[in-house]
Amino acid sequence: MYNLLNDLSIVEVSSFVASPTAGLYCAQLGAEVIRVDHKAGGLDYNRYMLTGEGRSLSWENLNRAKKSLALDLQSGEGRELLVALAASVGQCITNLPEKSFLSHAAMQARRADMVSLRVMGWHDGRQAMDFTVNAAVGYPLMGGPEDWDPVTAPPVNQVLPAWDFITGAYGAFAMLAALRHRDRTGEGSEVRLPLGDVAIGTMANAGLMAEVLYRGGDRERLGNAIWGAFGRDFRSRDGVRFMVAALTPKQWGGLVKAFGVEAGIAALEVEYGVRFADGDTPRFTHRSDLFALFQHAAEHADYAELESRMTAQGCTFERYRTAFEAANDRALVADNPLFGPAPANPSGFDYPATRSFANLPEREAGDPAPAPFLGQHSEEVLAEKLGLSSGAIGKLVDAGTVALSDKE
Amino acid sequence: MYNLLNDLSIVEVSSFVASPTAGLYCAQLGAEVIRVDHKAGGLDYNRYMLTGEGRSLSWENLNRAKKSLALDLQSGEGRELLVALAASVGQCITNLPEKSFLSHAAMQARRADMVSLRVMGWHDGRQAMDFTVNAAVGYPLMGGPEDWDPVTAPPVNQVLPAWDFITGAYGAFAMLAALRHRDRTGEGSEVRLPLGDVAIGTMANAGLMAEVLYRGGDRERLGNAIWGAFGRDFRSRDGVRFMVAALTPKQWGGLVKAFGVEAGIAALEVEYGVRFADGDTPRFTHRSDLFALFQHAAEHADYAELESRMTAQGCTFERYRTAFEAANDRALVADNPLFGPAPANPSGFDYPATRSFANLPEREAGDPAPAPFLGQHSEEVLAEKLGLSSGAIGKLVDAGTVALSDKE
User: Fold this and answer.
1) Phi and psi (nearest 5°) for A353?
2) Do β-strands A353-354 and A339-340 pair in parallel, antiparallel, or remain unpaired?
3) Backbone angle region of B41, left / alpha / beta, with phi > 0 → left and psi within -120 to 50 → alpha
4) How buried is residue B130: exposed, middle or buried, by Cβ count under 10 Å (0-12/13-18/19+)?
5) 374-393 in A: which are within 8 Å (CB) of B?
6) The pTM is what?
7) Residue A37 — φ and ψ, nearest 5°?
8) Which of A183, A228, A282, B184 has its CB surrounded by the most CB atoms within 10 Å?
9) Is B405 on the interface with A (CB under 8 A)?
């Protein structure tokens, strides 16, 4: 953990992926992030995959480096404590509905300059999750093999919950923007971030909305090819599948040399009266001929040889790996400073743990921290943030309003 | 544009998607973002899709609300001006290589507290792009129909360049974190953000790395089903495909009622000795039986009826739309306050334009701004930020070091 945000405390009341991720990113840059959950665990506490002992590997990765306060959030007392804590700390990340007890107005009533980030479904309050907003904005009907019949082709969901992760990162950004504004003006902010708007808005920002409106219809199915540029998966003689991309003149020149297809390229250039080095447009327009030429070359060499040639030419390429292969890949994980030693995870299972995606060469990175046990920091947080005495905390524990660590 | 960041100026030297997106998000929250390009346009200036007049619809969406300074970046004079400008402004977003003229050290030499964000390929300096890092970390080999033979199934690239968009949002966040640190300590920061680390790190944060290491192998192919929970696409009697998800007890109960499958659920509960309302685990474990039950029910109703029943039960669902359908969907676009009126786009083509994903109910949202013409703000920026006289700027233009608007 870098100490960029070590003056910042944040209360997080979250479930699932987007909202916990916003807190995770802040924690990994040094913020004190206090995740507050219902004492039996929130909706995501038992999210697949569980270890044999019932610990969620999903939860313990999305909540790394946070503190945990466990309250009875079905009781008025527990809810009251949470609102008081959020107001005391001054900034809160949540995906609870705006019409819940943790509304911005409720926090603002106790603290005029409150900053809250609320991750929502659709902007109008309708529920949504990653896979449903994805269905709505068009990407699944663009995926899958190029030779599928466009009329009968099924949608292909992306396995990565991309909208959740974009929303989490954007949420962390928008909250820091609101905090920066408060530092300068003294004004708080309510920041609402609908997952659905991240999806349809990204589709627009990517130029896809303008494109389909300009052409008056949908884009053709491209399979694994990159839209608007030269790139696709190829297969070597020994059956290894790999992805290559050439977006710049240098990348293109290197790829032609690595595949040894200079003569074929020259012939196609004569045939079509174009120069493929000129840019994306001729390469994308004639992609079908180019793909055939490159695939033919790939079939005549084993991957090790192709890899060596592409490396020598500085090409942009990557072998497809399964997730298990990736997790065991030294260059990606064991030798990558993004990962640190396994901390004491709640599950007891040891595996590489992430630092922040960003690295700061001039600063100390520190080691990754584990997720907390549920309620592990209940006493500490209530004492430090709300000034409760140990006697008062003991009474709240006895009354069932506060729970302590679920380690045992 | 909300005015959260209106005290902030940023120099952006970018191409493609991730790095321009970081600047876009800042501009949409009110920052002055000065995109500096080579005078003929950067590597992404003619990125597909182009209008008939040759304007890139990709570029004009990813660079909305920014200013443009066009310099001869192949000349020493142009490069010198850019380094001076970045140091004068104090913060810079770029994806130029660290070993380029725009190194952090070069900017820091002129300004000790410089903050720079550098979007990279892999952490070790190797080139990468969205589709190659995606190939490396495992997702494409998890995608596609469930019934594909796992041994011969091809990779399925996601059409959305998700890693680019996560990196852009995270980069904007990390830069604001570094600026916050400078506000408090006076210290600058070099922030490096490798696209590859965002990919393998997200795979880890999602719990997928822990999962495959824990099980000692890869996850089974799931088709369009949601990992670890209840959710999949179904098809109505009239052939409409839609995605449903039930992660909470309330969502599950509503879905069972909407599909009218209470009896079938009860029978399965007896057969397997489980209660599906208990959580994700029984629903995911027995998903194959549940999917068959729900699909059978879907086949006996038209979509309009299913939609009405799911809406009444507050279910989380969405009909699959093509991108063209989504762009023309009133609820998603025309009636969504995320979008504002078409500004004067460089292309001259009018279409809905995004505001920031985040909305702040208490503040004025303002109207979306257009992308600039290349070089449109060259004179303004050089005069305001570097104090150059109009005579000095005229000489730079005559010498070809500075270019003015390419509007005509």
Assistant:
1) -120, 145
2) antiparallel
3) left
4) buried
5) none
6) 0.98
7) -130, 160
8) A228
9) no
* Chain B residues closer than 8 Å to A223 by CB: 157
**Token pair for B35:** 């995109």
Facing A139 at nearest CB: one of B154, B159, B193 = B159
Cite the beta strand spans of A320-377 per DSSP E. 339-340, 353-354
Kindly state whether B348 is in contact with chain A, defined as any CB-CB distance less than 8 angstroms.
no
- Enter the ipTM: 0.98
pLDDT tens-digit readout, B328-364? 999 999 999 999 999 999 999 999 999 999 999 999 9
| Eight-state DSSP code of residue B220 | P
Task: Select the residue of B64, B190, B314 nearest A362 (Cβ to Cβ).
Answer: B190
Contacts of B167 in chain A (CB under 8 A): 357
Q: Give me A359's structure tokens.
A: 């690295």
pLDDT, position B317: 98
pLDDT mean by block of 10 residues, chain A; 408 residues: 93 97 98 98 93 96 98 98 98 97 98 98 95 98 93 94 98 98 98 98 98 97 95 98 95 97 98 95 96 98 98 97 98 97 96 97 95 98 98 98 94
* For residues B364-370, average pLDDT: 95
The pLDDT of residue A282 is 95
Helix A249-259 to helix A303-312 angle (10° resolution) is 140
Contacts of B119 by beta carbon, 8 Å cutoff, 6+ apart? B14, B18, B19, B22, B93, B94, B95, B167, B168, B171, B193, B194, B195
Q: Which residues of B touch A200 (CB under 8 A)?
A: 326, 332-333, 336, 338
